[in-house]
Structures are given as structure tokens and as C-alpha cells.
TrEMBL record:
This is Fibrinogen gamma chain-like. The keyword Electron transport does not apply. One of its GO terms (cellular component) is fibrinogen complex. Residues 1-21 form the signal peptide. It is found in: Secreted. It comes from Sinocyclocheilus anshuiensis. Keywords: Blood coagulation, Calcium, Coiled coil, Disulfide bond, Glycoprotein, Hemostasis, Metal-binding, Secreted, Signal. The keyword Oxidoreductase does not apply.
Length: 427
């Protein structure tokens, strides 16, 4: 058992040596000056993506390994203690045997003492054996967990790291243009909106929609202005990865069309319930206006109008100060909100912050949904929030934000753009 345990421990250490070597080799630019064009849009993770992923796992794994090392040492100490006891018992026994024939009567008292000591030692040893067994069980569980993690890691690395990804050959100024030219399948297309300096990749489908945000917990959304501007995460041809397309691209897409766009927000909670909210005439302003969010009205949905703010019952001004229409975009390094401090910095995410929010889909990912002030760094509700559906202390499981030409919605029905969610799973 011990040998196999050591074997696993060594394998895991080896795994870390390999991954950290890879980090040194592949990952040179620090996170905040990540090259905006570093392969974003290909199926493989960007350098930023790989680094984020490893950085998320390494501290936990390091801690686990330290704990295991400590447990091993305790185990060794206990074994030594037990061995000492056995030696002592054996010595006492030998001595007793030697002395018994001659000095039976004289020694009988001390023999009785020895027997009492034996009994005590046996009890103590049983205790130690019990402790050792518990430690062993705890270790076995840890090893199983680590093995599982390592298998998942392996799977994760295998799947998205395809060398090639199918990018459709048809291009155009928007999805409608692409469809007109024969681009009929869902997938990744290059589009070049009217004012864009160069074409960029987006996911689009038969309904001519663009997906610009997807959450499933695999990517850290605590990013700076430049990253929210250029986009981060991973795009995939089956639209199942997590990303922020980038404010500049969302802006260019949202302002070029002659047909108004509807912003559609789709959400899934931890019980698998799905809800959505639509906003008519969605537009994102240019960078000089800090990518201001505007729409004309709540177009419908069953999730409620959280963008209009929410009365949390703390103050009559709650609803006004948690609305989002007309808000500029803020990031931890750029404060454009209506609060005397920086909402985006407090909550570690970029969003159209007011003072601060009733909707916050770029928030921190909390497994299981429910979280409390104690789970946060500074007591602020920083999860993935849609306050007109779940409380602000409930973080949603999956979200998607997409823009759809309004004619596609009215002709094809409310859920024409909706698609089955498929996350990367819980890691
Ligand atoms: Ca502020």
C-alpha cells in the first residue's frame, strides 16, 4: 500500500514538473499584457488561457501535496513509536522468562506489574493502530481525488487541443451577408463589419446570431480593460466553450446592421432550470464612450428585467442604482461606474457597473450556486447574478449572451436562437 502510494505521489510530482516546465516554456507574457491577437479564436487555448488554467489548479495541488507529505511524516513517527513499544515488550518478556524459575516468588509482584504494563501497552497500541488506519484511509481518499483530478486534467488537455479547427471559408460583413453567400451551417466564421480594421472570428448559426459571452466556470473573468476590449477565453465551432468575445468586436457588430439587434441572455441555474431575457435595439458604444450599454426596452423573457435594476429592500434608491441601461463598462483597472469606489475592482470582473448591479453575468463562478458574504473577499455579492430570478447570493451555473437580428426573433418565435447549453462540466 505504501509503495503504491509513493508511486502515485511521485507520478503527481512528475506531472507538476512537466506542467510547470511547460509553463516556463510556453508562457512568457504576463497576464495583463497578453497579446490581443495571441491565437484567440482558434480551438486551442491561448497562452493566457493555458496559464489561467494552470494557475487555477496549482495552489490547490501544492497544498494537497504538502498535506500528504505531513501525513506521511506523522505516519512514520507513529510507526517508530509502535516499534519502540514492541521492542520494549519483547525485552520485558525475555527478562521475565530468564528470572522466573529462580526467583518466582520474589519477582511475582514485579511480574504482575509487568502484566499491567503489557495490558496498557496493548491498549495504547490498539489506539495507535486505529489512528494509523484513519490516516491511511484519509490518504487513500486523497490519492483517489488526485487521480481523478489528474484524469480530468488529462481529458481537458486532450480535447480542446486539436491542431486544427474547422473555420468556415465563407466570410462577409455580418451573418446575414454570410448566409446570403451560402454559409448555412452553424460554426466559426470570419466577419468584417463595416468599420472593422480587420476580420475576426465569431460563432454564428442559421438564425444569424452572434454569441459574445458564455459562462460555465472554466475561465477566470477577473480581467483588465485590454482583455475585455480584445476578448479572452476560447471560441469553438460547436459553441461550447467559455469566452468574452471582446467589447470592440461587440461594438462593431452591434452598430453596423440596418436591422436592429436584440440582446438575448440565456441562463441555467443549478437545478437545470433555464430562463431568458431579451432587450430590443441593443448597442454597445465605442471605446471613447467606454463601451456604453444601451437598449430601447425589455423585449420579453421569463427571467425578469434585471437590467432595469432591482429593489433589494436596503434603500429606496436600490432599483435606480442597480440598473444597467446607459452604463459604461468598468474593469478592475478602469472605473466608469456611479459608485464612489470601483465596483469592478471590488468584485473582480468587467461589467456595465452602476452602483453596482442587479445583473452581473461576468461575476465569479461559485460551484453549487449558493454563496455567502464569507465566501467573498470583501463581503460584496460578486457571483453570476440575475436578481429578478435568483437572489444576489446565488450564482448561476451557465449563461450565454448573444445578439440576434430582430426579424429572426419575430419570424421564428421566441426561442429560435436558443440552443442546448453544454458546459465543460464541473472540474
Ligand atoms: Ca467609481
Amino acid at each position: 500500500n505504501m509503495a503504491s502510494f509513493m508511486h502515485v505521489a511521485v507520478s503527481i510530482l512528475l506531472l507538476f514538473t512537466l506542467t510547470s516546465a511547460q509553463m516556463r516554456g510556453d508562457y512568457s507574457p504576463p497576464q495583463d499584457i497578453c497579446n490581443p491577437n495571441d491565437g484567440f479564436g482558434k480551438y486551442c487555448p491561448t497562452t493566457c488561457g493555458v496559464a489561467d488554467y494552470l494557475q487555477r489548479y496549482k495552489p490547490d495541488m501544492d497544498r494537497e501535496l504538502d498535506q500528504m507529505e505531513q501525513d506521511l511524516e506523522d505516519l512514520a513517527n507513529l510507526t517508530r513509536g509502535a516499534q519502540d513499544k514492541v521492542v520494549y515488550l519483547r525485552d520485558s518478556e525475555t527478562q521475565a522468562q530468564k528470572q522466573a524459575p529462580d526467583t518466582y516468588i520474589k519477582k511475582s509482584t514485579s511480574m504482575l506489574d509487568d502484566i499491567l504494563r503489557f495490558e496498557k501497552s496493548i491498549l495504547a497500541q490498539e489506539d495507535q493502530i486505529y489512528q494509523l488506519q484513519s490516516i491511511l484511509q484519509a490518504n487513500e481518499k486523497r490519492i483517489t481525488d488526485l487521480k481523478q483530478m489528474s484524469v480530468q486534467l488529462d481529458q481537458m488537455c486532450k480535447e480542446p487541443c486539436k491542431d486544427t479547427v474547422e473555420i468556415q471559408t465563407v466570410t462577409g460583413k455580418d451573418c446575414q451577408d454570410i448566409a446570403n453567400k451560402g454559409g448555412k451551417v452553424s460554426g466559426l466564421y470570419y466577419v468584417k463589419p463595416a468599420r472593422a480594421p480587420e476580420a475576426f472570428l465569431v460563432f454564428t448559426d442559421q438564425n444569424s446570431l452572434y454569441v459574445f459571452q458564455r459562462r460555465d466556470g472554466s475561465v477566470d473573468f477577473n480581467k483588465k480593460w485590454i482583455q475585455y476590449k480584445e476578448g479572452f477565453g476560447y471560441l469553438s465551432p460547436d459553441d461550447r466553450t467559455e469566452f468574452w468575445l471582446g467589447n470592440e468586436k461587440i461594438h462593431l457588430l452591434s452598430v453596423q446592421s440596418s436591422v436592429p439587434y436584440v440582446l438575448r441572455i440565456e441562463m441555467v441555474d443549478w437545478d437545470g432550470n433555464k430562463k431568458y431575457a431579451d432587450y430590443a435595439t441593443f448597442k454597445l458604444g465605442p471605446e471613447v464612450d467606454a463601451y456604453r450599454l444601451t437598449y430601447s426596452y425589455y423585449f420579453g423573457g421569463d427571467a425578469g428585467d434585471a437590467f432595469d435594476g432591482h429593489d433589494f429592500g436596503d434603500d429606496p434608491s436600490d432599483k435606480f442604482y442597480t440598473s444597467h441601461n446607459g452604463m459604461q463598462f468598468s474593469t478592475p483597472d478602469k472605473d466608469n461606474d456611479k459608485f464612489h469606489e470601483n465596483c469592478a475592482l471590488q468584485e473582480g470582473a468587467g461589467w456595465w457597473m452602476n452602483r453596482c448591479h442587479a445583473a452581473h453575468l461576468n461575476g465569479k463562478y461559485y460551484q453549487g450556486g449558493k454563496y455567502t458574504e464569507k465566501d467573498t473577499q470583501n463581503g460584496y455579492d460578486n457571483g453570476i447574478i440575475w436578481a429578478t430570478w435568483h437572489s444576489r447570493w446565488y450564482s448561476l451555473k451557465e449563461t450565454t449572451m448573444k445578439i440576434i437580428p430582430i426579424n429572426r426573433i419575430s419570424t421564428d418565435g421566441q426561442h429560435s436562437g436558443a440552443k442546448q447549453f453544454g458546459g465543460l462540466g464541473d472540474i
